[in-house]
Each structure stands twice: as structure tokens, then as C-alpha cells.
Amino acid sequence: MAKKTSKKNALHEKNIDRNKTVSMKKKMHDKNQKIYGEIKSSNDEVTKLVELIFVILVIFAAFYLITTWVTKKEKNTPKQDLGTIQDSVIQYDDILLGNLLKQNKEEYYVLLIDKKTEKSKFSSNLSTYQEKEGSLKIYISYLDEAFNQPYKKEESHLITDDIESLGVKTTTLFKVKNNSVVEAIEGMEEVKNKLNEMIK
Questions:
Q1: Which of 39, 64, 142, 177 could form a disulfide with 115 if both were Cys (CB 3.0 to 4.6 A apart)?
Q2: CA 113, CA 103: separation in Å to the nearest integer?
């Protein structure tokens, strides 16, 4: 009987050893799977990072090629003579009547007109005059401008060196010298005639 008990104990110990071995193998397998999963996850992240860098490089390359192509195209297109374009487009500075005597030039003209109805009637004469050598600067002021309304009066007072005493009724061409109005032509026809004289 002692042999049977010792055989049973031996078998039982073998089973325990086998179970321990299987348990250890399972733990090792689980550990290996975990490490493999981490490595695989790490590889996936590296792959995604490389793909992202590749896409960014492709986008930069595309922008570079487009910019280079546009720049070369601009260099190959004939340029227009900017001097002639600028000569044909003359800019007039718009001013308020309150600034009539305050411009930086020593001598200049200010044309007071109704913006809605008269601007186109004078543009040709003004352009021709401004192209003339030695012409004085011409500023434009609009009679219908809200800030010019305090100067619109029943009776004209045009020749002045004090802006507070200025009074206008209609279209007027002022000649200003040294911060004083030295000449004023009133009325649309009279102003047109004066501009025609100035063009000659």
C-alpha cells in the first residue's frame, strides 16, 4: 500500500509540475503576446508618422512647383509700359471746403462741383490740364457733400483768407496761393471757359 500511495503522490506531483509548467507557458505566451502587441502598435504608429511626413512633403513639393511655374510664366509675359498707363489715369485728391486753404502746396486749384451731375462734365478738361507741363495741382470738392453744407450760402463770398467767411452757391473754381483764395470763377459755364483757357 505504501507503493500505491507513493505512486499516487508521484503522479500528483507530476500533475502539479505539469500544471505549473502549463501555467508558466501560458503566462509566458500572454507576456509574449502583450510585447508583440506593443511592438505591432509601435510599428503602426511609426508607419502612420512616415505616411504623414510623406504627405506633407508631397504638398510642399506641389506648392513649390506651382510657385516656380507661375513665377516663370510672369517673367515670360511681356510687361506693359507702366509710364503710359499712369499718364492716362490722373488722380485728383478730394478735399472738404474746410480744408480749402490748408493744402501742402503753395499754389493750387480747387474745383467745387456737384458730384452727381457735374463730375463727368469736367473730367476731360481736368485730365488735359493735368498732363500739361507746369500745371498746378487741382483738388476736387463736392458741393453736395454733407460736411460742405455749412459753406453753402445764399450770397457768395469767394475771395478770402479766412475759411469761416467763405460762402458758395454753385460750381466754383478757386485758385489758392499762400493760404488765400486769390481768384474764384463761379458758375458752370464760366468754370468750363476758364478750364478751356488753362488748357491752351
A1: 142
A2: 18
